[in-house]
Amino acid sequence: MEEIRSVAAEERQLNFLEEIVENDLAVGKHNSILTRFPPEPNGYLHIGHAKSICLNFGLAKKYGGKTNLRFDDTNPTKEDVEYVDSIKEDVKWLGFNWVSEFYASDYFEQLYEWAKDLIRKNLAYVDDQTQEEIRINRGTVTRPGIASPWREREVEENIDLFERMRRGEFKDGAKVLRAKIDMSHSNMLMRDPILYRIIHAYHHRTGDKWCIYPMYDYAHGQSDSIEKITHSICTLEFDVHRPLYDWFIEKLNIFPSRQYEFARLNLTYTVMSKRKLLELVKSGFVAGWDDPRMPTICGLRKRGYTPESIRLFADKVGVAKRDNIIDLSLLEWCVREDLNKRSNRYMTVINPVKLTISNYPKDKVEIFNAPVNQENPDAGTREIPFSRELYIEREDFMEEPPKKYFRLRPGGEVRLKYSYIIKCEEIIKDNDGNITEIVCSYDPQSRPGTGEWRSVKGTIHWVSVPHAAETELRLFDRLFTEADMDSIPQDKSYTDFLNPNSLVITTGYSEPAVAKDVSNIAVQFERNGYFVKDSDSNDNKLVFNKTVGLKSNWTQS
Ligand code: ATP
Ligand code: MG
Questions:
Q1: Would the N or C end of the chain have less CB density within 10 A of its end CB?
Q2: Considering the domain 274-344+470-548 in this protein, what is its CATH number?
Q3: How high is the pLDDT of residue 455?
Q4: What are the phi and psi torsion angles at 331 (to 5°)?
Q5: Which one from 274, 336, 388, 533 is the annotated catalytic residue?
Protein backbone atom coordinates (compact mmCIF):
# COMPACT_ATOMS: atom_id res chain seq x y z
CA MET A 1 0.00 0.00 0.00
CA GLU A 2 2.17 2.73 -1.36
CA GLU A 3 -0.25 5.52 -0.61
CA ILE A 4 -0.62 4.54 3.04
CA ARG A 5 3.10 4.48 3.61
CA SER A 6 3.56 7.97 2.26
CA VAL A 7 0.76 9.36 4.41
CA ALA A 8 2.38 7.75 7.44
CA ALA A 9 5.74 9.26 6.58
CA GLU A 10 4.37 12.77 6.38
CA GLU A 11 2.67 12.27 9.67
CA ARG A 12 5.84 12.15 11.67
CA GLN A 13 6.06 15.89 11.17
CA LEU A 14 3.70 18.24 12.97
CA ASN A 15 0.54 19.11 11.13
CA PHE A 16 -0.21 22.79 10.66
CA LEU A 17 -2.62 22.91 13.60
CA GLU A 18 -0.07 21.37 15.91
CA GLU A 19 2.43 23.97 14.72
CA ILE A 20 0.00 26.76 15.55
CA VAL A 21 -0.77 25.34 18.98
CA GLU A 22 2.90 24.76 19.82
CA ASN A 23 3.68 28.30 18.80
CA ASP A 24 0.79 29.78 20.78
CA LEU A 25 1.91 27.91 23.88
CA ALA A 26 5.57 28.82 23.34
CA VAL A 27 4.95 32.57 23.07
CA GLY A 28 2.54 32.46 26.01
CA LYS A 29 -0.53 33.42 24.03
CA HIS A 30 -2.35 30.68 25.94
CA ASN A 31 -1.37 28.68 29.00
CA SER A 32 -3.49 25.79 27.90
CA ILE A 33 -5.74 25.12 24.98
CA LEU A 34 -9.47 24.54 24.81
CA THR A 35 -11.09 23.11 21.68
CA ARG A 36 -14.68 22.15 20.98
CA PHE A 37 -16.61 19.75 18.84
CA PRO A 38 -19.75 21.62 17.70
CA PRO A 39 -22.27 19.32 15.99
CA GLU A 40 -25.66 20.51 14.92
CA PRO A 41 -28.12 17.96 16.33
CA ASN A 42 -29.89 17.49 13.01
CA GLY A 43 -28.61 14.03 12.14
CA TYR A 44 -26.33 11.21 13.16
CA LEU A 45 -22.57 11.63 13.13
CA HIS A 46 -20.62 10.27 10.18
CA ILE A 47 -17.01 9.38 9.48
CA GLY A 48 -16.31 13.03 8.55
CA HIS A 49 -17.41 14.08 12.01
CA ALA A 50 -15.22 11.31 13.43
CA LYS A 51 -12.28 12.99 11.73
CA SER A 52 -13.23 16.30 13.34
CA ILE A 53 -13.73 14.64 16.74
CA CYS A 54 -10.35 12.92 16.61
CA LEU A 55 -8.76 16.19 15.57
CA ASN A 56 -10.34 18.39 18.24
CA PHE A 57 -10.03 15.91 21.10
CA GLY A 58 -6.69 14.61 19.87
CA LEU A 59 -5.12 18.06 19.66
CA ALA A 60 -6.26 19.04 23.14
CA LYS A 61 -5.08 15.73 24.56
CA LYS A 62 -1.67 16.01 22.94
CA TYR A 63 -1.09 19.44 24.48
CA GLY A 64 -2.68 18.85 27.88
CA GLY A 65 -5.77 20.84 27.02
CA LYS A 66 -9.48 20.15 27.11
CA THR A 67 -12.41 19.83 24.75
CA ASN A 68 -16.04 20.88 25.05
CA LEU A 69 -18.96 19.23 23.39
CA ARG A 70 -21.26 21.97 22.13
CA PHE A 71 -24.52 21.41 20.38
CA ASP A 72 -25.01 24.06 17.77
CA ASP A 73 -28.78 24.04 18.18
CA THR A 74 -29.85 27.29 16.59
CA ASN A 75 -32.20 25.83 13.99
CA PRO A 76 -35.29 24.55 15.84
CA THR A 77 -37.08 23.11 12.83
CA LYS A 78 -34.45 20.50 12.01
CA GLU A 79 -33.15 19.49 15.38
CA ASP A 80 -34.13 16.82 17.83
CA VAL A 81 -33.09 15.22 21.15
CA GLU A 82 -32.82 11.86 19.39
CA TYR A 83 -29.80 13.31 17.59
CA VAL A 84 -28.34 14.82 20.76
CA ASP A 85 -28.38 11.42 22.45
CA SER A 86 -26.87 9.59 19.51
CA ILE A 87 -24.09 12.16 19.17
CA LYS A 88 -23.10 11.77 22.80
CA GLU A 89 -23.12 8.00 22.49
CA ASP A 90 -20.96 8.10 19.37
CA VAL A 91 -18.35 10.51 20.77
CA LYS A 92 -18.01 8.34 23.88
CA TRP A 93 -17.82 5.18 21.81
CA LEU A 94 -14.97 6.68 19.82
CA GLY A 95 -13.16 6.95 23.13
CA PHE A 96 -13.33 10.65 23.93
CA ASN A 97 -14.55 12.54 26.98
CA TRP A 98 -15.59 16.15 26.95
CA VAL A 99 -15.02 18.41 29.97
CA SER A 100 -18.30 20.29 29.52
CA GLU A 101 -21.47 19.79 27.56
CA PHE A 102 -22.95 23.01 26.26
CA TYR A 103 -25.73 24.12 23.96
CA ALA A 104 -25.70 27.25 21.83
CA SER A 105 -29.30 27.67 23.02
CA ASP A 106 -27.93 28.18 26.57
CA TYR A 107 -26.48 31.42 25.22
CA PHE A 108 -29.63 32.80 23.57
CA GLU A 109 -30.12 35.46 26.27
CA GLN A 110 -26.49 36.60 26.10
CA LEU A 111 -26.53 36.58 22.29
CA TYR A 112 -29.69 38.67 22.37
CA GLU A 113 -28.09 41.21 24.71
CA TRP A 114 -25.04 41.41 22.48
CA ALA A 115 -27.27 42.00 19.48
CA LYS A 116 -28.76 44.97 21.31
CA ASP A 117 -25.20 46.20 22.01
CA LEU A 118 -24.53 46.13 18.31
CA ILE A 119 -27.74 48.06 17.66
CA ARG A 120 -26.75 50.67 20.24
CA LYS A 121 -23.36 51.01 18.58
CA ASN A 122 -25.24 51.59 15.32
CA LEU A 123 -23.77 48.34 13.98
CA ALA A 124 -27.04 46.47 13.48
CA TYR A 125 -30.53 47.29 12.23
CA VAL A 126 -33.94 45.73 11.72
CA ASP A 127 -34.71 45.18 8.06
CA ASP A 128 -38.29 44.82 6.73
CA GLN A 129 -37.28 43.62 3.28
CA THR A 130 -38.41 40.18 2.22
CA GLN A 131 -35.87 37.34 1.98
CA GLU A 132 -36.04 37.70 -1.78
CA GLU A 133 -35.36 41.47 -1.71
CA ILE A 134 -32.47 40.94 0.65
CA ARG A 135 -31.02 38.34 -1.64
CA ILE A 136 -31.32 40.47 -4.78
CA ASN A 137 -30.07 43.65 -3.10
CA ARG A 138 -27.01 41.89 -1.79
CA GLY A 139 -25.55 42.23 -5.31
CA THR A 140 -23.09 39.82 -6.86
CA VAL A 141 -19.37 39.27 -6.82
CA THR A 142 -19.02 41.80 -9.62
CA ARG A 143 -21.81 44.20 -8.58
CA PRO A 144 -22.01 45.96 -5.19
CA GLY A 145 -25.15 45.53 -3.10
CA ILE A 146 -27.87 48.10 -2.66
CA ALA A 147 -28.52 49.45 0.82
CA SER A 148 -31.83 48.48 2.37
CA PRO A 149 -34.31 51.37 2.71
CA TRP A 150 -34.36 50.46 6.44
CA ARG A 151 -30.60 50.62 6.87
CA GLU A 152 -30.60 54.09 8.45
CA ARG A 153 -33.26 53.47 11.07
CA GLU A 154 -32.64 55.24 14.35
CA VAL A 155 -31.11 53.25 17.18
CA GLU A 156 -34.22 53.69 19.36
CA GLU A 157 -36.50 52.40 16.65
CA ASN A 158 -34.23 49.40 16.03
CA ILE A 159 -34.17 48.51 19.72
CA ASP A 160 -37.94 48.80 19.90
CA LEU A 161 -38.50 46.66 16.80
CA PHE A 162 -35.97 44.03 17.88
CA GLU A 163 -37.62 43.73 21.30
CA ARG A 164 -40.99 43.37 19.61
CA MET A 165 -39.55 40.71 17.29
CA ARG A 166 -38.58 38.78 20.38
CA ARG A 167 -42.03 39.28 21.94
CA GLY A 168 -43.58 37.61 18.93
CA GLU A 169 -45.37 40.59 17.43
CA PHE A 170 -44.32 39.75 13.88
CA LYS A 171 -44.82 36.83 11.58
CA ASP A 172 -42.06 34.55 10.31
CA GLY A 173 -40.01 36.37 7.70
CA ALA A 174 -41.54 39.80 8.38
CA LYS A 175 -38.32 41.26 9.71
CA VAL A 176 -34.71 40.31 10.32
CA LEU A 177 -31.87 41.83 12.28
CA ARG A 178 -28.80 42.55 10.18
CA ALA A 179 -25.30 43.69 10.97
CA LYS A 180 -24.41 47.03 9.43
CA ILE A 181 -21.05 46.39 7.79
CA ASP A 182 -20.50 47.19 4.13
CA MET A 183 -22.89 46.60 1.23
CA SER A 184 -20.06 46.71 -1.30
CA HIS A 185 -17.61 44.49 0.58
CA SER A 186 -15.71 42.09 -1.69
CA ASN A 187 -16.68 39.28 0.69
CA MET A 188 -20.41 38.77 0.14
CA LEU A 189 -20.83 37.49 3.69
CA MET A 190 -19.82 40.95 4.97
CA ARG A 191 -22.66 42.66 3.09
CA ASP A 192 -24.84 43.24 6.13
CA PRO A 193 -25.28 39.59 7.14
CA ILE A 194 -28.47 38.50 8.86
CA LEU A 195 -28.05 37.96 12.60
CA TYR A 196 -31.58 36.96 13.59
CA ARG A 197 -34.65 35.65 11.85
CA ILE A 198 -38.17 35.12 13.15
CA ILE A 199 -39.17 31.46 13.41
CA HIS A 200 -42.26 30.63 15.44
CA ALA A 201 -41.19 27.08 16.17
CA TYR A 202 -40.82 24.85 19.19
CA HIS A 203 -37.18 24.29 20.17
CA HIS A 204 -36.15 20.96 21.67
CA ARG A 205 -34.56 22.71 24.66
CA THR A 206 -35.98 26.21 24.99
CA GLY A 207 -39.52 25.20 24.04
CA ASP A 208 -41.63 28.21 23.04
CA LYS A 209 -39.49 30.74 24.88
CA TRP A 210 -37.99 32.14 21.69
CA CYS A 211 -39.41 33.03 18.31
CA ILE A 212 -36.25 34.71 17.03
CA TYR A 213 -33.22 32.54 16.39
CA PRO A 214 -29.60 33.57 15.74
CA MET A 215 -27.90 32.61 12.48
CA TYR A 216 -24.92 30.24 12.53
CA ASP A 217 -22.39 33.04 11.96
CA TYR A 218 -23.73 35.14 14.77
CA ALA A 219 -24.03 32.25 17.23
CA HIS A 220 -20.96 30.19 16.53
CA GLY A 221 -18.08 32.57 17.19
CA GLN A 222 -19.78 34.13 20.17
CA SER A 223 -20.42 30.69 21.68
CA ASP A 224 -16.70 29.97 21.22
CA SER A 225 -15.93 33.23 22.94
CA ILE A 226 -18.28 32.62 25.88
CA GLU A 227 -16.58 29.26 26.48
CA LYS A 228 -13.13 30.81 25.94
CA ILE A 229 -12.29 28.35 23.20
CA THR A 230 -8.71 29.03 22.13
CA HIS A 231 -8.67 27.16 18.82
CA SER A 232 -11.93 26.87 16.95
CA ILE A 233 -11.34 24.32 14.23
CA CYS A 234 -13.72 24.00 11.33
CA THR A 235 -13.77 22.88 7.73
CA LEU A 236 -12.34 24.84 4.80
CA GLU A 237 -15.59 26.24 3.45
CA PHE A 238 -15.75 28.43 6.55
CA ASP A 239 -12.64 30.39 5.68
CA VAL A 240 -14.79 33.09 4.03
CA HIS A 241 -16.72 33.34 7.30
CA ARG A 242 -13.60 34.13 9.29
CA PRO A 243 -13.66 37.93 8.71
CA LEU A 244 -17.17 37.97 10.11
CA TYR A 245 -16.15 35.73 13.01
CA ASP A 246 -13.42 38.25 13.85
CA TRP A 247 -15.69 41.28 13.24
CA PHE A 248 -18.15 40.21 15.97
CA ILE A 249 -15.37 39.52 18.44
CA GLU A 250 -13.81 42.91 17.77
CA LYS A 251 -17.03 44.93 17.84
CA LEU A 252 -18.35 43.21 20.95
CA ASN A 253 -14.91 43.29 22.56
CA ILE A 254 -15.17 39.74 23.86
CA PHE A 255 -12.73 36.83 24.37
CA PRO A 256 -10.69 36.47 21.17
CA SER A 257 -11.28 32.89 20.07
CA ARG A 258 -9.61 32.15 16.75
CA GLN A 259 -10.91 30.09 13.88
CA TYR A 260 -8.73 27.69 11.86
CA GLU A 261 -9.82 25.70 8.85
CA PHE A 262 -8.81 22.24 7.62
CA ALA A 263 -9.96 20.19 4.64
CA ARG A 264 -13.11 18.19 5.26
CA LEU A 265 -12.90 14.46 4.85
CA ASN A 266 -14.31 13.10 1.60
CA LEU A 267 -14.39 9.39 0.89
CA THR A 268 -14.75 7.56 -2.40
CA TYR A 269 -18.08 5.81 -3.07
CA THR A 270 -19.66 7.76 -0.21
CA VAL A 271 -21.98 10.70 0.34
CA MET A 272 -21.52 12.49 3.62
CA SER A 273 -24.01 15.33 3.70
CA LYS A 274 -26.49 14.85 6.51
CA ARG A 275 -29.30 16.00 4.24
CA LYS A 276 -28.56 13.18 1.81
CA LEU A 277 -28.04 10.62 4.54
CA LEU A 278 -31.41 11.61 6.02
CA GLU A 279 -33.01 11.19 2.60
CA LEU A 280 -31.50 7.71 2.23
CA VAL A 281 -33.06 6.77 5.56
CA LYS A 282 -36.44 8.44 4.96
CA SER A 283 -36.91 7.01 1.49
CA GLY A 284 -35.97 3.52 2.63
CA PHE A 285 -32.87 3.06 0.49
CA VAL A 286 -31.20 1.84 3.66
CA ALA A 287 -32.64 0.27 6.80
CA GLY A 288 -31.83 3.24 9.06
CA TRP A 289 -29.10 5.59 10.20
CA ASP A 290 -27.25 2.55 11.51
CA ASP A 291 -27.51 0.51 8.33
CA PRO A 292 -24.04 -1.07 7.99
CA ARG A 293 -23.66 0.47 4.53
CA MET A 294 -24.01 4.00 5.92
CA PRO A 295 -20.90 6.09 6.62
CA THR A 296 -22.42 7.02 9.99
CA ILE A 297 -20.56 6.09 13.16
CA CYS A 298 -23.47 3.90 14.27
CA GLY A 299 -23.49 2.28 10.81
CA LEU A 300 -19.77 1.58 10.97
CA ARG A 301 -20.23 0.19 14.48
CA LYS A 302 -22.94 -2.19 13.27
CA ARG A 303 -20.66 -3.09 10.39
CA GLY A 304 -17.97 -4.20 12.83
CA TYR A 305 -15.65 -1.22 12.79
CA THR A 306 -13.89 -0.61 16.08
CA PRO A 307 -13.14 2.78 17.68
CA GLU A 308 -9.47 1.89 17.38
CA SER A 309 -9.76 1.40 13.62
CA ILE A 310 -11.54 4.72 13.14
CA ARG A 311 -8.99 6.60 15.23
CA LEU A 312 -6.22 4.95 13.23
CA PHE A 313 -7.94 6.07 10.05
CA ALA A 314 -8.23 9.67 11.28
CA ASP A 315 -4.52 9.53 12.02
CA LYS A 316 -3.55 8.15 8.64
CA VAL A 317 -5.68 10.71 6.81
CA GLY A 318 -3.82 13.49 8.56
CA VAL A 319 -4.77 17.15 8.46
CA ALA A 320 -4.85 18.78 5.05
CA LYS A 321 -5.35 22.37 4.02
CA ARG A 322 -6.69 21.54 0.61
CA ASP A 323 -9.75 19.48 -0.29
CA ASN A 324 -9.09 15.92 -1.37
CA ILE A 325 -10.81 12.59 -1.53
CA ILE A 326 -9.61 9.62 0.46
CA ASP A 327 -9.86 6.10 -0.87
CA LEU A 328 -12.38 3.97 0.97
CA SER A 329 -9.79 1.18 0.89
CA LEU A 330 -7.74 3.11 3.45
CA LEU A 331 -10.61 2.88 5.93
CA GLU A 332 -10.86 -0.84 5.21
CA TRP A 333 -7.15 -1.28 5.60
CA CYS A 334 -7.40 0.30 9.05
CA VAL A 335 -10.11 -2.04 10.30
CA ARG A 336 -8.24 -5.08 8.98
CA GLU A 337 -5.12 -3.85 10.70
CA ASP A 338 -6.93 -3.72 14.04
CA LEU A 339 -9.03 -6.88 13.69
CA ASN A 340 -6.14 -8.97 12.45
CA LYS A 341 -4.51 -8.55 15.86
CA ARG A 342 -7.57 -9.02 17.99
CA SER A 343 -10.29 -11.02 16.33
CA ASN A 344 -11.12 -14.63 17.07
CA ARG A 345 -10.92 -17.09 14.17
CA TYR A 346 -13.61 -19.52 13.10
CA MET A 347 -14.60 -21.49 10.06
CA THR A 348 -17.81 -20.58 8.28
CA VAL A 349 -18.79 -21.85 4.86
CA ILE A 350 -20.61 -19.15 2.94
CA ASN A 351 -21.54 -20.91 -0.29
CA PRO A 352 -21.79 -24.56 0.72
CA VAL A 353 -21.52 -27.77 -1.21
CA LYS A 354 -21.73 -31.09 0.60
CA LEU A 355 -18.66 -33.31 0.86
CA THR A 356 -18.85 -36.90 2.08
CA ILE A 357 -15.82 -38.90 3.22
CA SER A 358 -16.60 -42.40 2.04
CA ASN A 359 -14.02 -44.23 4.16
CA TYR A 360 -14.80 -42.38 7.41
CA PRO A 361 -17.05 -44.30 9.86
CA LYS A 362 -20.69 -43.21 9.84
CA ASP A 363 -21.21 -42.26 13.48
CA LYS A 364 -17.71 -41.28 14.38
CA VAL A 365 -16.98 -37.76 15.59
CA GLU A 366 -13.50 -36.42 16.30
CA ILE A 367 -12.66 -33.14 17.94
CA PHE A 368 -9.79 -31.05 16.61
CA ASN A 369 -8.25 -28.27 18.62
CA ALA A 370 -7.28 -25.06 16.94
CA PRO A 371 -6.01 -21.72 18.16
CA VAL A 372 -8.70 -19.06 18.49
CA ASN A 373 -6.27 -16.48 17.18
CA GLN A 374 -2.90 -17.40 15.72
CA GLU A 375 -1.78 -13.80 16.21
CA ASN A 376 -2.55 -13.93 19.91
CA PRO A 377 -1.63 -17.13 21.83
CA ASP A 378 -3.45 -15.81 24.95
CA ALA A 379 -6.74 -16.24 23.15
CA GLY A 380 -6.61 -20.01 23.76
CA THR A 381 -8.06 -22.80 21.68
CA ARG A 382 -11.39 -23.91 20.31
CA GLU A 383 -12.85 -27.35 19.66
CA ILE A 384 -13.89 -28.22 16.13
CA PRO A 385 -15.97 -31.36 15.57
CA PHE A 386 -15.23 -33.47 12.49
CA SER A 387 -17.50 -36.09 10.93
CA ARG A 388 -18.18 -38.01 7.71
CA GLU A 389 -20.34 -35.24 6.22
CA LEU A 390 -18.92 -31.78 5.72
CA TYR A 391 -19.65 -28.52 3.97
CA ILE A 392 -16.96 -26.85 1.94
CA GLU A 393 -17.10 -23.72 -0.23
CA ARG A 394 -18.38 -24.38 -3.73
CA GLU A 395 -15.50 -22.22 -5.04
CA ASP A 396 -13.00 -24.56 -3.40
CA PHE A 397 -13.79 -27.26 -5.95
CA MET A 398 -13.32 -27.06 -9.71
CA GLU A 399 -14.05 -29.81 -12.15
CA GLU A 400 -11.77 -28.39 -14.82
CA PRO A 401 -9.37 -26.14 -12.98
CA PRO A 402 -6.84 -23.81 -14.55
CA LYS A 403 -3.13 -24.25 -13.82
CA LYS A 404 -2.06 -23.18 -10.33
CA TYR A 405 -5.43 -24.04 -8.86
CA PHE A 406 -4.41 -25.67 -5.62
CA ARG A 407 -7.82 -26.39 -4.19
CA LEU A 408 -9.91 -29.49 -4.73
CA ARG A 409 -10.21 -31.10 -8.18
CA PRO A 410 -11.19 -34.55 -9.46
CA GLY A 411 -8.52 -36.97 -8.26
CA GLY A 412 -6.73 -34.18 -6.40
CA GLU A 413 -5.79 -33.78 -2.75
CA VAL A 414 -6.18 -30.92 -0.28
CA ARG A 415 -5.83 -30.57 3.45
CA LEU A 416 -8.93 -29.75 5.44
CA LYS A 417 -7.74 -27.01 7.73
CA TYR A 418 -6.63 -28.32 11.17
CA SER A 419 -7.55 -31.82 9.99
CA TYR A 420 -6.96 -34.61 7.47
CA ILE A 421 -5.85 -34.68 3.87
CA ILE A 422 -8.66 -35.75 1.57
CA LYS A 423 -8.75 -36.93 -2.03
CA CYS A 424 -11.61 -36.33 -4.45
CA GLU A 425 -12.98 -39.65 -5.71
CA GLU A 426 -16.33 -38.85 -7.28
CA ILE A 427 -18.69 -35.99 -8.15
CA ILE A 428 -22.47 -36.32 -7.94
CA LYS A 429 -24.62 -34.01 -10.07
CA ASP A 430 -28.34 -33.34 -10.41
CA ASN A 431 -30.23 -33.54 -13.71
CA ASP A 432 -29.22 -29.98 -14.60
CA GLY A 433 -25.57 -30.79 -14.22
CA ASN A 434 -25.09 -28.93 -10.92
CA ILE A 435 -22.76 -30.54 -8.44
CA THR A 436 -24.75 -31.68 -5.40
CA GLU A 437 -22.12 -33.68 -3.60
CA ILE A 438 -18.42 -34.38 -3.68
CA VAL A 439 -17.27 -37.79 -2.49
CA CYS A 440 -13.76 -38.03 -1.07
CA SER A 441 -11.56 -40.44 0.80
CA TYR A 442 -9.38 -39.38 3.71
CA ASP A 443 -5.88 -40.37 4.71
CA PRO A 444 -5.99 -41.47 8.39
CA GLN A 445 -2.18 -41.05 8.58
CA SER A 446 -2.47 -37.34 7.86
CA ARG A 447 -4.06 -36.41 11.18
CA PRO A 448 -2.14 -33.39 12.54
CA GLY A 449 0.04 -34.27 15.49
CA THR A 450 0.33 -37.95 14.62
CA GLY A 451 2.91 -39.66 12.47
CA GLU A 452 4.77 -37.88 9.73
CA TRP A 453 3.55 -34.52 8.44
CA ARG A 454 2.67 -34.78 4.79
CA SER A 455 2.10 -31.54 3.04
CA VAL A 456 -0.15 -30.78 0.09
CA LYS A 457 -0.44 -27.51 -1.79
CA GLY A 458 -3.97 -26.49 -0.90
CA THR A 459 -5.76 -26.04 2.40
CA ILE A 460 -9.48 -25.36 2.55
CA HIS A 461 -11.90 -24.68 5.39
CA TRP A 462 -14.91 -26.82 6.22
CA VAL A 463 -17.72 -27.35 8.70
CA SER A 464 -19.17 -30.63 9.95
CA VAL A 465 -22.77 -30.96 8.71
CA PRO A 466 -24.39 -32.41 11.85
CA HIS A 467 -22.64 -29.80 14.03
CA ALA A 468 -23.04 -26.81 11.74
CA ALA A 469 -24.81 -23.69 12.97
CA GLU A 470 -26.95 -22.13 10.28
CA THR A 471 -25.77 -18.55 9.90
CA GLU A 472 -27.43 -15.67 8.10
CA LEU A 473 -24.72 -13.65 6.42
CA ARG A 474 -25.28 -10.08 5.31
CA LEU A 475 -22.70 -9.25 2.69
CA PHE A 476 -22.22 -5.56 2.02
CA ASP A 477 -20.63 -3.68 -0.79
CA ARG A 478 -20.11 0.05 -1.30
CA LEU A 479 -23.38 1.97 -1.35
CA PHE A 480 -22.60 3.93 -4.52
CA THR A 481 -21.13 2.92 -7.85
CA GLU A 482 -19.30 6.18 -8.51
CA ALA A 483 -15.98 6.91 -6.80
CA ASP A 484 -16.24 10.70 -6.73
CA MET A 485 -19.81 11.39 -5.71
CA ASP A 486 -19.15 15.14 -5.62
CA SER A 487 -18.46 15.21 -9.34
CA ILE A 488 -21.50 13.41 -10.73
CA PRO A 489 -23.16 15.13 -13.73
CA GLN A 490 -25.39 18.09 -12.84
CA ASP A 491 -28.48 16.54 -14.39
CA LYS A 492 -28.18 13.41 -12.24
CA SER A 493 -29.12 12.75 -8.66
CA TYR A 494 -26.82 10.96 -6.26
CA THR A 495 -29.56 8.33 -5.89
CA ASP A 496 -29.03 7.42 -9.57
CA PHE A 497 -25.72 5.95 -8.48
CA LEU A 498 -26.94 3.68 -5.70
CA ASN A 499 -25.34 0.25 -5.98
CA PRO A 500 -28.18 -2.29 -6.45
CA ASN A 501 -25.93 -5.03 -5.09
CA SER A 502 -24.83 -3.25 -1.94
CA LEU A 503 -26.56 -5.89 0.20
CA VAL A 504 -26.70 -9.62 -0.44
CA ILE A 505 -28.19 -11.88 2.21
CA THR A 506 -27.19 -15.52 2.19
CA THR A 507 -27.14 -18.51 4.51
CA GLY A 508 -23.90 -20.15 5.49
CA TYR A 509 -22.78 -22.74 8.04
CA SER A 510 -20.52 -22.11 10.98
CA GLU A 511 -18.52 -24.34 13.28
CA PRO A 512 -20.34 -24.54 16.63
CA ALA A 513 -17.81 -22.40 18.54
CA VAL A 514 -19.09 -19.33 16.67
CA ALA A 515 -22.31 -19.40 18.66
CA LYS A 516 -20.36 -19.31 21.91
CA ASP A 517 -18.06 -16.44 20.98
CA VAL A 518 -18.18 -13.68 23.59
CA SER A 519 -15.41 -11.47 22.27
CA ASN A 520 -17.79 -8.61 21.45
CA ILE A 521 -15.80 -7.55 18.44
CA ALA A 522 -15.84 -8.79 14.89
CA VAL A 523 -14.47 -12.29 14.28
CA GLN A 524 -12.56 -13.64 11.33
CA PHE A 525 -14.26 -16.31 9.29
CA GLU A 526 -11.10 -17.93 8.03
CA ARG A 527 -10.34 -17.30 4.38
CA ASN A 528 -13.59 -15.31 4.07
CA GLY A 529 -13.16 -12.07 5.94
CA TYR A 530 -14.18 -10.27 9.11
CA PHE A 531 -17.76 -10.54 10.31
CA VAL A 532 -19.55 -9.13 13.32
CA LYS A 533 -22.54 -10.60 15.11
CA ASP A 534 -25.68 -8.56 14.46
CA SER A 535 -28.16 -7.80 17.24
CA ASP A 536 -30.77 -9.74 15.24
CA SER A 537 -29.01 -12.91 16.42
CA ASN A 538 -30.73 -14.99 19.08
CA ASP A 539 -30.42 -18.47 20.61
CA ASN A 540 -31.87 -20.09 17.51
CA LYS A 541 -30.35 -17.97 14.82
CA LEU A 542 -26.94 -16.50 14.08
CA VAL A 543 -26.80 -13.32 12.02
CA PHE A 544 -23.46 -11.85 10.98
CA ASN A 545 -22.61 -8.67 9.09
CA LYS A 546 -19.56 -8.70 6.88
CA THR A 547 -17.17 -5.98 7.98
CA VAL A 548 -14.53 -6.37 5.29
CA GLY A 549 -12.76 -9.02 3.27
CA LEU A 550 -9.33 -10.28 4.22
CA LYS A 551 -7.65 -8.55 1.33
CA SER A 552 -8.58 -5.62 -0.76
CA ASN A 553 -10.65 -7.09 -3.57
CA TRP A 554 -11.21 -3.84 -5.39
CA THR A 555 -8.73 -2.70 -7.93
CA GLN A 556 -8.04 0.95 -7.40
CA SER A 557 -9.22 3.09 -10.26
P1 ATP B 1 -23.40 18.39 6.95
O2 ATP B 1 -22.99 19.42 5.96
O3 ATP B 1 -23.21 16.98 6.53
O4 ATP B 1 -24.75 18.64 7.56
P5 ATP B 1 -22.11 19.81 8.97
O6 ATP B 1 -20.76 20.28 8.74
O7 ATP B 1 -23.20 20.80 8.85
O8 ATP B 1 -22.36 18.53 8.12
P9 ATP B 1 -22.08 19.82 11.77
O10 ATP B 1 -22.92 19.07 12.72
O11 ATP B 1 -22.25 21.27 11.68
O12 ATP B 1 -22.27 19.13 10.37
O13 ATP B 1 -20.55 19.45 12.01
C14 ATP B 1 -19.93 19.41 13.26
C15 ATP B 1 -18.45 19.53 13.08
O16 ATP B 1 -17.97 18.46 12.27
C17 ATP B 1 -18.09 20.80 12.36
O18 ATP B 1 -16.99 21.39 13.03
C19 ATP B 1 -17.75 20.36 10.98
O20 ATP B 1 -16.79 21.21 10.41
C21 ATP B 1 -17.21 18.97 11.20
N22 ATP B 1 -17.41 18.15 10.01
C23 ATP B 1 -18.57 17.90 9.38
N24 ATP B 1 -18.37 17.17 8.27
C25 ATP B 1 -17.03 16.93 8.20
C26 ATP B 1 -16.19 16.24 7.28
N27 ATP B 1 -16.66 15.62 6.21
N28 ATP B 1 -14.86 16.23 7.54
C29 ATP B 1 -14.36 16.82 8.62
N30 ATP B 1 -15.10 17.50 9.51
C31 ATP B 1 -16.42 17.56 9.31
MG1 MG C 1 -23.06 22.67 10.00
A1: C
A2: 1.10.1160.10
A3: 87
A4: -60, -40
A5: 274
pLDDT value of residue 12: 62
Cα distance between the two ends of the chain: 14
Examine the residue annotation and report whether 40 is marked as an active-site residue of this protein.
yes
Instruction: Say which DSSP state 485 is in.
Output: G
CA 489 – ligand 1 centroid, Å: 24
Write out residues with Cβ below 6 Å of ligand 1: 38-40, 48-49, 51-52, 72, 234-235, 264-265, 272-274
Nearest CA to ligand 1 atom 10: 39
Our mutation pick for probing the ligand 1 site, out of 17, 40, 45, 49, counting the most ligand atoms within 8 A of Cβ, is: 49
274 is catalytic: yes
104-153: per-residue pLDDT in tens? 999 999 999 999 999 999 999 999 999 999 999 999 999 999 999 999 99
Q: How far is the CA of 438 from the centre of ligand 1 (A)?
A: 55
Beta strands in 430-539 (DSSP E): 435-443, 459-460, 463-464, 469-476, 503-510, 523-525, 529-533
Whole-prediction pTM: 0.93
Q: Which helix (H) or strand (E) holds 542?
A: strand 542-548
Instruction: Give 32-262's CATH code, choosing from 2.40.10.120, 3.10.20.30, 1.10.1240.10, 3.40.50.620.
Output: 3.40.50.620
